[in-house]
Amino acid sequence: MKLQSLLTEAGTHIVLVVMDGLGGFADAEYDTELEEANTPNLDQLAAEGIVGLVQPVAPGITPGSGPGHLALFGYDPTEYELGRGILSATGVEFDLRAGDVAARGNLALLDDGGNVSDRRAGRIADDAAQAIVDALNAQVEVDGVEVFFRHIASHRVLVVLRGEGLDPRVADLDPQRTGVPPKDPQPLDPAAQRTADVLRTLDKAVRAVLSDHPADALLLRGFDTLHELPSFADLYGLRAATVAIYPMYRGVAKVCGMDTLPRPSGLDEQVAAMREHWNDYDYFFLHHKKPDEAGHDGDRPGKIAGIEALDAVVPDIVALEPDVLVVSGDHSSPTQMSAHSWHPVPTIMWGPLVGRDNVTTFGERACAQGALGQRPTRELMPLMLAAAGRLAKYGA
Amino acid sequence: MKLQSLLTEAGTHIVLVVMDGLGGFADAEYDTELEEANTPNLDQLAAEGIVGLVQPVAPGITPGSGPGHLALFGYDPTEYELGRGILSATGVEFDLRAGDVAARGNLALLDDGGNVSDRRAGRIADDAAQAIVDALNAQVEVDGVEVFFRHIASHRVLVVLRGEGLDPRVADLDPQRTGVPPKDPQPLDPAAQRTADVLRTLDKAVRAVLSDHPADALLLRGFDTLHELPSFADLYGLRAATVAIYPMYRGVAKVCGMDTLPRPSGLDEQVAAMREHWNDYDYFFLHHKKPDEAGHDGDRPGKIAGIEALDAVVPDIVALEPDVLVVSGDHSSPTQMSAHSWHPVPTIMWGPLVGRDNVTTFGERACAQGALGQRPTRELMPLMLAAAGRLAKYGA
To answer: Which of A164, A282, B98, B187 has the CA that lies 20 to 30 A from B228?
Structure first.
């Protein structure tokens, strides 16, 4: 059964709020961050809607941000994979073309023996890194291939190769640890031999330029090429837009065919952008980064504060009168682990046709009791479409 | 997405405790056996971890011990089947080799017309049956094939054929009812024609020997050959061992590539064996038979006592400091039914990274409220690997 065959027109609005890294776990010492957070507005949504726990990829699997978001958008994240290069390219709104090979690069320091001593070049400042990127764009030349460098943030750089016969099946050059040299480019398929050779030449040219700058090497990883994903318009008949702030999440949205509204500076501007464009779109994706950032840092008060900041704008979102509002996360980021994790993600679904369960607070243990149950994240999308009146009856 | 591609090294320990036939159901008269049992230590695990109900094969399907254990080990029990012959062979620790064809045999009585009159030879006593097996091993000869007979219990005998070009695709010779003759060997595939011919010769030779004994025929069924299952080492990167006592469970573990530690005599020795070999393995499988035995007998107090016996050693298992401890069962065996059943199996998952839910006791109805939810048994394995820090992140 194809969802497309059931799509029906409706002048309704769906809002997806993603708190990045939302989930956590309780232990002998603490409740979860979400359980401890003071969230009167989210609790009210929970009381008026249904809650559950969702699993982005599969039981026990810790998702990266790409698979976590694809699942929220209704895609099977084991079927559609997005390399880091592609996410970085879309993230800085680089106009990637078919056949381009993109990679994520880290500006790094090497010691006298040529081994990596700092994978982030001392977390180089944005202006110093931008100067390096400008120099690379001006001075690096590789025969038969166009090379583009774009600064992402701090030590993070996007590299794009454009030319005939390039192939992304090349192993990462970034060894992902210190004390060892950058890896020599190795094709993972014979067809990628020329791309590996190009990368070897590129690496030399880059190092020559860097000799005048506060970085020694550019460690590349996540080679990928643009895969066409079916779009939100084709899959769901939705005019969709994102008010995400961070490039990577704007990028994932764009790959799925969403419009990217002018970049807001914070939660209030994100909600304001939705309000301003409310009648231009059927679906809005709001991304809130703070819980994941604090989760990575093991910063429990920070994660709690990040959740509470989102809670504070819930009344403004509700005031837009969405027909379906979902609050969820792309994965869990427990502060006990300072990392992403496999724990399922607490989720609220709210709207006039959604129904209610007996749960009246938003938290992991409360969600384990909810009527949304435990289910794969990507099942949220058809449920949202249904509650927005956008799916016709199946069968007579 | 293959789990193998995410495996990562970790010096962590996983313990799986299987209470055979653990689950039951409540009725107008009684709580379940587990609910009535006094289990302070299991209750503490439940309070400190998460609980749920697991389903070994599929909704409504009553599992045999083979599929029940394969699911606990993370295999799809509808994809990997272990024939009765193979389970019988591993069960008596017969050293089955690649290419051997094994079958289960019943010593049976025939009437004057050659029809089966008793499929169990009057539930022949063990010593009489052992004498028959000895005579068969001494006297039965078939050209070009080695034949091995092993006594299992009462009328049950293992038969193994060893030789070139044997094929297990032969229909059962056991008609599984009385009043009809044993079936003539029929190949289910042309490649098994020779094996069918061998079995016809074997049947004559067996009957000739039996003419001096209190049985008339050996009814064979469940022809199978040793299938190589992917091993725990290959699938999960785990050094795995079992401290099971009963041959059949040691056999299933062995088929999955686990080491079988010297046979313990009871629960205390099982835990002691884990303690002794703690640093030699990453994964231990402890099997506890008593709840299922009592379940088969409809012995409610016996099943309760069996559960309480396991509860008593929980502190010794916890003292080993496993990173993940799961307590579950291979299937349910309600004493009301004196048989295996399809009812889902109550399960605890416990460990520092597992998290907690609101459930504080171990029982079927408590588990229905737990954060582990209701899920296929085989999902436990990736969750255990995750909580043991053995799965890397999926995607960027």
So the answer is: B187
Q: What angle do CA A60, A63, A66 make, to 5 degrees?
A: 160
Residue B136 C-alpha, separation from nearest chain A C-alpha, in angstroms: 51
Tell me how close the Cα of B235 comes to any Cα of chain A, in angstroms: 15
Closest alpha carbon within chain A to B387 = A60
Summarised one tens digit per residue, pLDDT across range A333-377 is 999 999 999 999 999 999 999 999 999 999 999 999 999 999 999
More confident residue, B5 or A387: A387
With an 8 Å Cβ cutoff, are A337 and B353 in contact? yes
Q: Structure tokens of B34?
A: 């587990």
pLDDT bracket for residue B206 (50, 70, 90): very high
What's the pLDDT score for residue A90? 77
User: Are B396 and A84 an interchain contact pair (Cβ–Cβ within 8 Å)?
Assistant: yes
| Chain B interface residues (partner A, CB cutoff 8 A) | 1, 6, 48, 352-358, 369-371, 373, 375, 379, 381-387, 391-396
CB contact under 8 A, A60 and B357: no
SS3 A170: strand
Beta strands in chain A (DSSP E): 14-19, 50-55, 101-110, 116-118, 146-153, 156-162, 217-225, 240-242, 259-260, 283-288, 324-328, 345-350, 373-376
Share the mean pLDDT of chain A.
Answer: 95
ipTM field: 0.86
How many A/B residue pairs have CB atoms within 8 Å? 94
Residues of chain A positioned with their CB less than 8 A from the CB of B357: 365, 368
Contact A62 B375 (CB under 8 A): no
Residue of B nearest to A78 (CA): B1
∠B188-B253-B99 over CA atoms, to 5°?
35
Q: Rounded to a whole number, what is the distance in angstroms from the first to the last CA of chain B? A: 14
Give the nearest partner residue to A64 out of B382, B387, B395, using CB atoms.
B395
CB contact under 8 Å between A365 and B358, yes or no, is yes
DSSP assignment, residue B379? G
A25, A188, A335: best mutation site toward chain B, by most B Cβ within 10 Å?
Answer: A25
- Where is pLDDT greater, at B284 or B95? B284
Q: Which chain A residues are within 8 Å of B394, Cβ to Cβ?
A: 57, 61-64, 67, 77
**Token output for B93:** 């620790």
What are the pLDDT digits (tens) for B87-102? 778 777 788 888 999 9
Per-residue pLDDT tens over the stretch A223-258: 998 877 899 999 999 999 999 998 889 989 988 999
Let me know the angle formed at the C-alpha of A369 by A364 and A371, rounded to the nearest 5 degrees.
115
Q: Which two tokens stand for residue B363?
A: 């029982």
Please report the pLDDT score of residue B374 as a whole number: 97
Residue type at B272 in one-letter notation: A
pTM of the model: 0.87
For residue A309, what is the enclosing H or E element? Answer: helix A300-319
- The span from the CA of A313 to the CA of A329, in Å, is 17
Contact A365 B379 (CB under 8 A): no
